[in-house]
Amino acid sequence: MGKFKITVARIELAGRGSQVRITFQVEGAPTCFQVPILLDIGDFDDTEMVQAARSGLHRTFVELASQSQKWELTPQDLRRLSSMSLRPKGHAT
């Protein structure tokens, strides 16, 4: 995995005007996706919204990393799985 570029894609009112949705665009070839972060409009002023949303984005990724940690395979695990493959070697699918 290389570096990712994370930018603010949109800032919009949500939840009947009681919330702000700040959507981040995450890009890193070949991956590209958006993550919306919701904030209550009364909790932060306009100058603090993006900083608070960045913190929320970080907490989201920390939780995702924690929940998916058990899925991580060692290089040895990957080699073992590859050697078990029944797909003919050298052929694209």
Q: What is the compact description of this entry?
A:
This protein is α+β, with helices and mostly antiparallel strands and 93 residues long. The chain has helices at 46-68, 75-84, and strands at 5-14, 19-28, 31-40.
Mean pLDDT, all residues = 91
- The SSE order reads EEEHH
Sheet of most strands: 3 strands, antiparallel
Distance between termini?
23 Å
* Beta strands, count: 3
Helix content: 25-40%
Low-confidence stretches: none
Q: Count up the helices.
A: 2
Q: Briefly note the structural class of the backbone.
A: alpha+beta
Order of strands across the widest beta sheet?
1-2-3
Number of domains: 1
- What portion of residues belong to β-strands? 25-35%
User: What's the gyration radius in Å?
Assistant: 19 Å
Describe the global form: elongated
Outline the structure in words.
The protein has about 90 residues and is of the alpha+beta class. It has one domain. The protein contains 2 helices and 3 strands. The protein has a 3-stranded antiparallel sheet with strand order 1-2-3, covered by helices on one side. Strand 2 and strand 3 form a beta hairpin. The chain is elongated, with a radius of gyration of 19 Å.
Helix and strand arrangement:
Elements: E1 5-14, E2 19-28, E3 31-40, H1 46-68, H2 75-84
Features:
93 residues, 3 strands, 35% helix
